[in-house]
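Q: My labmate handed me this sequence with no annotations at all. I'd like to see what the chain might look like in three dimensions before we decide whether it's worth expressing. Could you predict it?
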Amino acid sequence: MVTEEEVMEELSNVIDPEIGMSIVDMGLVDEVKIDRGKVSVNFHLTAPFCPPVFAMMIAKDIKDRLSRMAGVNSSEVKLVGHMMADEINETINKPS
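A: Here is what I predict for the chain of 96 residues:
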């Protein structure tokens, strides 16, 4: 079973394209929940008006990294506090 520490370690590889730092080091990961192989990650960005293309890049990187982790059966990524959060969350969490 995957642990919160393992998820945070993997998320430390997600780099904010504008700043060039890890979203973990920047304190942008708000919450990680794990329930029987389903991992949910809530995160925010440095500003509510951060360019949507960067917001989507970060959300997709999180989703892709979670999907490749051993012990993760499904994932949900939720961007909070951003002007395009609803649209990005809907797009990133669509079933493939």
